Amino acid sequence: MTQSQANTRNGGRILVDQLLKQGADTAFCVPGESYLAVLDALYDSRDDIRLINARHEAGAANMADAYGKLAGRPGLCFVTRGPGACHAAVGVHTAFQDSTPMILFVGQVGRDMRDREAFQEIDYRRMFSPVAKWAAEIETTARIPEYVARAYQVAMSGRPGPVVLALPEDMLTEMASVGDAPKVKPVQGHVTADDAAAIRAILAEAKHPLLLVGGSGWTDEAARDITAFAEANGLPVASSFRRQDVVSAASSSFVGDFGTAGAPSLVRRMQEVDVLMVAGARLGEMTTKGYTTLDTPSPRPRLIHVHAGAEEVGRVFQPELGLCASPASLAGALAEARWFEPSHFEGWRTQLRQEFLADVEPEREAGALDLAAAFTTLRERLETDAIVTLDAGNHTGWPQRYLRYGRPGRQIGSTAGAMGYAVPAAVAAAIAHPDRTVIGCVGDGGFQMSGLELATAVQYGARPIIFVFANGTYGTIRMHQEREYPVRVVGTDLQNPDFAAMAIAMGAHGERVTTTDEFMPAFERARASGKAALIELVTDAERISTRTTVTKLRGLSK
Q1: Which residues, other chains included, contact 251 with Cβ-Cβ below 8 Å and sequence gap of 6+?
Q2: What is the reported pTM?
Q3: Which of 42, 74, 196, 293 makes the best surface tag, with the fewest CB within 10 Å?
Q4: Residue 185 phi, psi dihedral angles, 5° rounding
């Protein structure tokens, strides 16, 4: 048999072979007739690539995003054309804003039917181009290796992100003789010795410096390296929104986060910062509190911005020193740097650290279930490698404020604020790491958007523990509503089902918690159950966030 004959395969087989060449081991999907040839090839490779079929395309895409965050390589998702692609779009948008490597494969109408508005036909290049790093359609079967290799390269290089590839149905069944592409090595910028010297020169003139870490691409080693640098030089470190796992909260250098649950005192302290060094994070709306903590376009504190994407440096705020480099490169270059005595910034760092520690002391909350006390207790019981997934909404304030993060543990949450993310993310995390405790935190509204993915966990033997915060309202919107239009509540109330019964019906463990004393015993029973679990936390909407109540909001309203 000649080499040419050996490589003659249909498009579906060629595609799956490329995924194997790139090291793929897991993919998420909702099946569709438009890519049956791929599914057939995945059957032959079922011992090498696990195919997880989700209950909804949004769930499958969110699983792929979470998997990409944890693995550091593209999470893979397959959906069918039209409605399938539209449902999955939320996961692509999340991956784009979160800088997550991901590839979405979309079945497409046959090439002979295009431009006729055939059944479920959409131009995916136009549809996804604003929310993907690259969106393309593979028109020639022999070019599948080229396209897949490029998809991996684009998804992982520079600022990571999602790629969308459309797969015409007839292209997948067509035969072609073609070789496989080699495994991709992503391209990243690096920090040079001169770059490090420039960073040192600016920090040497600081009295109140702050290191802000965030973004994607942080390996456990890089997280250790940047922590070592901060501690050795006495630098205070904060994290950007939902990146609290880069530098451990237990580190003497960690002083909080610029997220939705961060301490107001840290935001106020930004007025005193004279050198801000940003490592890996975007200076976006959430991290800068609506672009208010820094002056635009020339920030008042001297700014050092190191980011994997060159287009991100200077997007809004023009830095004094801007570098295009991956977090791993920066952290590795600084790991052994001993530029200042730890005592050099001691007064400033200690002040910020004490304010952080004071802020995460639990506030006594009225009501039978004190969430602050419950999550403070939980943080003492969680293993250091636990994974916590977060949804959108005020309820995430409790795990963000009162739990502790740091490698090898992970915080996996959508910075795009997408409801319905936490449950599929927790399922993916539990599939990827079956030996670790995985907790998903979701509101009653968010759970009803994607809670059926708990059945996916049951099907594949995954064991996430889902906390459903049930207060009968869309909490974040209710909070804004009460502040802007007090008492005029409309469109935010929820009539909830029996969440524990739903979990049990899906084959999971289910419980309902109404008091603080019930919380930890329920958690331990869920963990000991040996299967996916759901714990409904029944709370009152009066306690609308970790920092305020509805009554207070009405008193502070316009």
Answers
A1: 227, 230, 231, 237, 406
A2: 0.95
A3: 196
A4: -115, 110
Q: Which two tokens stand for residue 209?
A: 């410096």
Q: Are 151 and 134 in contact (CB under 8 A)?
A: yes
The DSSP code for 473 is B
The rounded distance, in Å, linking the Cα atoms of 414 and 94 is 6
Q: How many CB atoms lie within 10 A of CB 316?
A: 15
Q: What CA–CA distance (Å, rounded) separates 234 from 253? A: 7
What are φ and ψ of residue 324, in 5° steps? Answer: -100, 105
The DSSP secondary structure of 279-321, one letter per residue, reads: ES----TTTTTTTTSS-SSS-SSEEEEEES-GGGTTSSS--SE
Type of residue numbered 540: D
Strand 321-324 with 302-307, pairing: parallel
Pairing of strands 8-10, 175-177: antiparallel
Give the ranges where 77-219 is alpha helix by DSSP (H): 83-98, 124-128, 144-156, 169-173, 193-203
DSSP E strand stretches across 36-148: 50-53, 75-79, 102-108, 134-137
pLDDT of residue 558: 53
Q: Which helix (H) or strand (E) holds 328?
A: helix 327-334
Please state, in angstroms and rounded to a whole number, the distance separating the CA atoms of residues 410 and 439: 10
Give the pLDDT confidence of 526-539 residue by residue, as tens digits. 999 999 999 999 99
Instruction: Tokens 């504190």: give the residue.
Output: 301
- Tens-digit pLDDT profile for residues 161-209: 999 999 999 999 999 999 999 999 999 999 999 999 999 999 999 999 9
Give me 414's structure tokens: 């959508």
Of the pLDDT bands very low, low, confident and very high (cuts 50, 70, 90), residue 229 is: very high
Q: Which residues pair with 465 in a beta bridge?
A: 439, 533
> What gap in Å lies between CA 421 and CA 440, rounded to an integer?
9
